[in-house]
Each structure stands twice: as C-alpha cells, then as structure tokens.
Design brief:
The structure holds two protein chains of two kinds.
Chain A lengths: L34 H6 L9 H10 L2 H23 L9 E2 L2 E2 L13 H10 L17 H37 L1 H16 L2 H19 L10 H13 L1 H16 L2 H8 L4 H37 L11 H8 L7 H29 L5
Antiparallel strand pairs in A: 1-2
Chain B lengths: L1 H26 L15 H10 L6 H13 L13 H36 L4 H13 L4 H15 L14 H27 L2 H9 L3 H13 L1 H24 L5 H11 L2 H29 L7
Helix pairs in contact in B: 1-12, 4-5, 4-7, 4-10, 5-7, 6-7, 6-10, 7-9, 7-10, 8-9, 10-11, 10-12, 11-12
Classes of the chains: A mainly alpha, B mainly alpha.
C-alpha cells in the first residue's frame, strides 16, 4: 500500500476477474458530484403520454386535420342552421299565412312571385331559399340539413353500438379463452359469413313493420321505426368484425409481463381487463370505430336510396338523393347537393380514420 | 387438406341452413300476407289462396315443406305472378352475372395495374395521384356514382343509350359497379406489393442480376397477389348486393332488382328463393376462396 492511499483500501481483484481493478484508483478519483452536475442528470423534456404523442403526430398530418375541420364545420352548420333558418323540414312554405302555389321547384336562391310581391309590399326581407325548394314547396336547404343530421347520427350511434358490443364480447372471449372462446368465436364465424346486405334489407323491412305499434307513445316514437330498425340491424350484424379484432389484440396482450404481474398479486379479472388490457387495445378500438362511422353512413344511405330507410317526412341524405332521381334532368342540383354531402362526410371520415391509424398504431411507426 | 375441405364444406352447409331459417321466420313476421294488398278479396277466396300455397299451416311445418321441395330442385311458384320461379331467377342471374363478371374483371385488371404502379413509384407523383383517386373511389357510394353517370352520359351528353333489354349497353353499369372494388384492389395490391418488394427473396433475385421486369412480375407480384385472391370471394358478394341499386337505377332486370321488388311485394316464395340463391352463391364463393388461399400459399398450414 502506498502512502497517499492510506485510509482507502480497495481489495485487489481476484485472478482473471473481469471486474475493474479498483486498486489502481485512489480517493481523489472519486469526487462527489456538485449540485450543478446533478441537475444535468435531470430529464429535461416533459414526459408525454401515449395519447399526447399520437395527437402530436396527427396534428402534423394535413389531410387528417383538414378532415377534422370539415367535419367540425358540418357539425356546427347542422346544429346552428335550424336555429337561424325560419323554415322547417316538413312544412310547405306559406307566404303571409296563405298558400303559395308558385313556391314549388324553385332554383337556388330564387323567390316565388308571391314572395317577391310580399317583400315589395311590406319591405320585409324573407329568408332566401339557399338550395331552392322541392316539388312539394318545402325549403331544400333545411331538408338537406336534417338529412345530414339523420345520416351522421345513424353513423355515430351505429359505431358506438358496434363499439360497446364488440369490445365486451371480444374481450370476454379473448381473456377467458378455452371452451367459452371456442363457442363464442363459432357464433361470430356464422354471423360473419351471412350475406349482410340481404339480411339488413330483410330485417329493416320486417322490423320496420313490427316496431311501429310497439314504440307508439314512447320516446322512441319521434325517432321513427325505420331508424330504430336500422340501429337494431347494425347492432345485430356489424359488431362481429370489432369483436374479432379485440379478441386478437387481447390474446396478444394477455401474455405480456405486466398482466402476469397483476395476476400474481391477485388482481381480480374484471380489473385486469379494465385497467391493463383494454387501455392497451385503445388505439385499435379508436381506429376501428372511426372507420365504422362511414361504413354505417354508407349502409344507411343505401337503404334509404332503395326506399327502405327513414320514413317521410323525416329524411336522410340517401332518401333525398332517391327523391331527386325522378326530376334529375330538370333539377340536377337536388341530386348533386346530397350526393356531395355524403361523399364529403365519408371522405373526411375515411381520411381521418387513416390519419388516426398512422398516428396511433404503434406497430406502423 | 381433404379434412380441411370437408370441415369447410360442412360449415358452409350449416351457414346456408341458418340463413334459410332466419329468412323464413323473419319473413313470416311481416304483418299481413301477400294476398291482402290491392283489391279486397272475400274471406273465402283468401282462405282458398292461403290453403293452396300452404300458408294456413304452422310456420315450422311450412319451413320443412319448403326445404323438402328445395332439395329436390323445386323453387316453387311466385305468389304475385303465379309463374315458376326457377326460369325467372336463372334468366335474371345471367344478366347479373354478365354485369358482375365484367365489373370484377375490370376492377381486377386496373386494380392490380394501378396498385403495382403506385408501389413501384412510392411517394412520387404517380403514387400520389393513384392514392387520391382510390381514396375518392372508396368514398363514393355506388348509387351516387351510377346516378351521376346516368345523368351526365345518358341524359345530358347523350353519348350512351339508356338501358334497353334487347340491345343492352353494359358500359355505365359496369363502370358504376367496378369503381369501389377497383379502388380497394388497388390499395390492397399496393400494400402487399410494397411488403413483397422489401422481402429477402426480392433482394436475392436483384443481387443475382435478374432483370427488373422479371423481379417485379415473377418474384414480387405473384406473392403480392395472395391478399387480392382472398378478397375475391367477398367481392362476389359485394358485386351481387351492390348491383341492387345499380340495377335499380339503370332499370336492369337482374337478381338484385328482383330481391328488392319481392320484399316490397311480400312475395314470400320469391324472397326465399332469391335469398337462398344468393346465399348459396356467396357462401360457396367464400368457401372456394378459403380453399384456394390455402392451396396457393404453401406457408399456411392446415390445422
């Protein structure tokens, strides 16, 4: 031992040991870090959650942001427009309380003769018919607004129903596995292989006829039996895709160490599902739900177009387009406006769904 | 392989039976029979008609009687027109099949071509243009496309004649039907082509000095087409159901139109016949796809 290492003794390392030979160092080699140096070790950036990270990526995607903007704009318009516009979707326009025979089939921004005469007489400005009027003399703008409301809400409600049923069914099946999983997945296989459009049309017609008397006098009556029939059809047939996806995800996550750890300390099954497994499937759930909305809108407009959708005087974009077919040569704008709205909504939702997938699906990054 | 096929065939038959059960009982839930429409008929006549078509028997018994006949190839008689259903359905099927077949071929040809171009020019302008149009293509419902095509080309520009059963012009209906599957196949081909191009065997082929064209068509494209093949089964289902509106718009007398009108007319035997016919077609299309999928991709093992 040398003098300057007096009170400091490191053991000499064992023969052929791979450890650092501490006997080569002395006390001066090991200084305490100053406060300033300690600070340098602190993490500088704020920690970001998974959701924040995804949102940051989403914000960099111009197409997805534009879609969000378009969808928000549509939602604002369909909420605000009926408050401003004095016309209603199901009433025939009257001028000064009197029936106006000239108000039918007006072009965009046109007034009928009686309305012009009324405005000249009283000096009062009548609200313009932005998209004209239909063959019964109803304001077409407000009908389009209500049609969009119906189509969008069918899409959103259907997606939420698919979400709830699919997630519960898929997570039970995937988490418990074994016989329960086998039986539940056979049921899914059968529903999956049914020709959906045939059954949707059949069920929509049958339910529509049977539901009418059932819902009379309840809150559902105002929705109309067609709408409810459509919701039931979506709930019965469309959840299987979601259930399959969730089950696949859960089978993967189930094997992860953190689930094993939770199970070792005796966490009950329900809590493991809610706190550990489902949050980890969240990205898949969000993306699939977002893409479910346009497909439900597609189906709804398709049914309405065949005359099997929502019942008059309520309307949807599909039934507006259907009604416009008879006179499409003379009044093409009545067909084109609902068509453009459907395409715009579906396109925006599809692009948003793609954007969400790029932003939130960790496997793609 | 044989065991797998047998299992799948049994599953397909069970599916068809379930569809027949659902359709038959759901159909009978509709209030009002096929004969209480139009003119009021006397009680006696109604009873006579119901007895003639076995509609006075319990539903379960009706079901077994119907299925018994169907297995022997007897599709029954239309309750509305009183004519045999089978000649009617088969004639309509020929029309729908021509339309659908042409649409599928068009969609496949252009889809694979455009998908490969997009994959080979990734992130360059051809890719961006193709991606734009495929996104648009999957966002336009077939009924809107069909109506707009009819309006523009038949009624305004008058380039093409309106549908006429004696001298059919398939151009517009086929375009309307094929746009969605074409867009879908393009996306599918692009994704799987990109995947195939990054595989080791493609790199090996390039390293060996295989010419570019051969690498693309023989090594990459053949493997990239596997997902497209699996899409073809459900595709048949799409084309047939999608044709309901297209046939309606162009007033083509095909199967889709028959299904919709039979539901509106409550023509029980016709609804049942069309549903069963389409269901058998779709289930077996799916069955063939599943078997073909396993046959062309040796990586998939038979459980």
């Amino acid at each position: 031992m040398e003098a300057n290492k007096e009170d400091f003794k490191y053991k000499k390392r064992a023969f052929l040991s791979a450890q650092i030979d501490l006997s080569k160092f002395n006390k001066n080699d090991f200084e305490k870090a100053t406060e300033e140096e300690k600070k340098q070790q602190d993490v500088m950036g704020e920690s970001r959650t998974f959701f924040q990270d995804g949102m940051r990526r989403l914000r960099k995607n111009p197409l997805a942001m534009m879609s969000i903007f378009i969808l928000l704009a549509i939602v604002v318009i369909i909420i605000v427009a009926p408050m401003i516009c004095p016309y209603s979707y199901d009433t025939i326009i009257r001028v000064d309380g009197k029936r106006d025979r000239g108000v039918v089939n007006l072009g965009m921004m046109q007034y009928s003769d009686m309305e012009i005469e009324y405005m000249e007489r009283t000096g009062e400005k009548l609200f313009p018919h932005i998209f004209g009027t239909d063959s019964l003399g109803r304001d077409y703008f407000i009908r389009c607004i209500y049609g969009t409301r119906v189509s969008l809400s069918v899409g959103v409600v259907a997606a939420i129903m698919v979400l709830i049923i699919g997630v519960i069914y898929g997570s039970i099946s995937g988490y418990f596995g074994g016989k329960a999983d086998m039986i539940m997945m056979r049921i899914v296989d059968v529903i999956y292989s049914l020709p959906d459009m045939l059954l949707i049309i059949l069920l929509a017609v049958v339910l529509n006829e049977n539901l009418g008397p059932l819902i009379q006098g309840t809150v559902f009556e105002s929705l109309g039996s067609n709408m409810i029939a459509m919701f039931i059809v979506f709930a019965l047939l469309y959840w299987v895709g979601m259930a399959r996806l969730i089950r696949g995800q859960i089978l993967q996550i189930k094997k992860a160490e953190f689930v094993l750890a939770a199970r070792t300390i005796g966490t009950p099954n329900g809590r493991i599902l809610r706190k550990h497994i489902i949050p980890n499937c969240l990205s898949v759930i969000i993306i699939t739900t977002a893409l479910q909305v346009p497909s439900a809108i597609f189906t709804e407009s398709y049914l309405s177009f065949l005359g099997l959708g929502v019942s008059a005087p309520m309307t949807s974009l599909g039934s507006l387009a259907n009604a416009a077919r008879d006179s499409m040569q003379s009044y093409p704008h009545r067909l084109i406006i609902p068509a453009v709205i459907i395409v715009l909504i579906v396109l925006a939702l599809n692009l948003l769904g793609d954007g969400l997938r790029d932003a939130f699906d960790s496997k793609l990054n | 392989m044989a065991k797998y096929i047998v299992k799948r065939v049994i599953f397909a038959i069970i599916t068809i039976l379930i569809i027949s059960l659902i359709t038959f009982f759901v159909m009978n839930l509709v209030p009002g029979g096929p004969f209480n429409g139009e003119k009021a008929k006397s009680e006696a006549v109604l009873q006579e008609l119901n007895a003639r078509y076995n509609l006075d028997k319990p539903v379960v018994q009706q079901y077994f009687m119907y299925m018994g006949k169907l297995i022997q190839g007897d599709w029954g008689v239309s309750l509305k027109t009183g004519r045999e259903i089978w000649p009617d359905i088969s004639a309509r099927f020929v029309v729908s099949a021509k339309l659908g077949g042409a649409a599928i071929l068009l969609a496949l040809g252009f889809g694979i071509l455009l998908g490969s171009i997009a994959a080979l020019n990734r992130n360059k302008w051809p890719d961006r243009v193709i991606v734009f149009f495929t996104t648009l293509g999957t966002s336009v419902p077939s009924f809107i496309l069909a109506t707009i095509l009819l309006l523009v080309f038949c009624l305004i520009l008058r380039w093409l004649p309106v549908w006429n059963p004696d001298n059919p012009n398939y151009v517009l209906p086929v375009i309307a039907l094929s746009v969605y599957p074409m867009a879908y196949i393009t996306r599918l081909t692009k994704t799987s082509m990109l995947d195939a191009l990054s595989q080791d065997y493609v790199r090996t082929a390039r390293a060996k000095g295989v010419p570019q064209g051969k690498v693309i068509f023989v090594h990459a494209l053949r493997n990239a087409l596997i997902p497209v093949v699996t899409y073809l089964g459900p595709e048949v289902a799409y084309i047939i159901t999608g044709s309901m509106v297209v046939e309606n718009i162009f007033t083509i007398g095909g199967l889709g139109g028959a299904f919709v009108s039979s539901i509106i007319n409550r023509d029980y035997t016709m609804i049942m016949a069309v549903t069963m016919f389409l269901a058998i077609l779709m289930v077996f299309a799916n069955l063939l796809t599943d078997i073909a999928y396993k046959a062309i991709d040796p990586r998939i093992t038979f459980e």
